[in-house]
């Protein structure tokens, strides 16, 4: 737990990103976006104790002031890294508007909503200690809790997947369709879903008739989430959840893995589902999967080519990594990206997102 000097007294501070805590925090009833930004540049956070709805308006004003349109770059990698740097700098300022959360998970602000269920979803049961929390993150937690309750419709399941904050949500449907439609290996009776997250891919495999699926993840929140989804979908007899790093000990007919697609540094725990420096997880899976496949089994690798359009990976680099690790490409299925950002011309990375494709590589071991 980090601490901040609040009225010259250390107070607990929580932040779901990897940002450093502010050096000081001062309480206010009302103030302006300009003053909060000025204080932030002096490493001082502002703790809002006035009207909660006014705080949301001021937060919107802060975002409007710090989020400026980036200059176009001819080099894709430079554009990506500048975008990520700008995101980090903007987030640092935005997260300097704080609220005080009491030990019973109530907000010390007028007309504040009931956030107890949302905070319990994120942090678990309260330890009774008050703490400071960025307002922007609190609003994100509230939104995530509502999505957790509502669930995400999955056409391939004809049902919903429910995902709490801290677990990657399967909101991009194109890769789910690839797993649901690609021909299974002959006589496929068993599978492992590596980095299962919400459990959605394991559920799709079970719906397709794979009798035994072991779903692994090293994130206990993901395992708990997947377990709840598996039970809700009535698939417990087919899917076993294991909290471990990558592989369970068994050998199976099919291994499915959807690793992080971008070889870059994550700035928060949830971003580890998207960013992985130097494709470390991908390479570990490719190195170790041989020992966990039955003869004539297959490794299904789900990858986007966004990294190539961003200049983060050379066009032939993935093929080289596969060959280097003794994998033969038996079949490739692909689809155009269909998520909202892929069609948003105002997105800073629209030049790359508009060209993105998602691939399912059906790989056979050459060892």
UniProtKB/TrEMBL annotation:
GO biological process, one term: methylation
GO MF annotations, alphabetized: nucleic acid binding; protein-glutamine N-methyltransferase activity
SUPFAM superfamilies: S-adenosyl-L-methionine-dependent methyltransferases (SSF53335)
Domain Methyltransferase small: 177-305
Transmembrane portions of the chain: none
Tree of life domain: Bacteria
Keyword terms: Methyltransferase, S-adenosyl-L-methionine, Transferase
Cited PROSITE patterns: N6_MTASE
PANTHER family named in the record: HEMK METHYLTRANSFERASE, MTRF1L RELEASE FACTOR GLUTAMINE METHYLTRANSFERASE
Full protein name: Methyltransferase small domain-containing protein
Taxonomy of the source species: Bacteria, Pseudomonadati, Pseudomonadota, Betaproteobacteria, Neisseriales
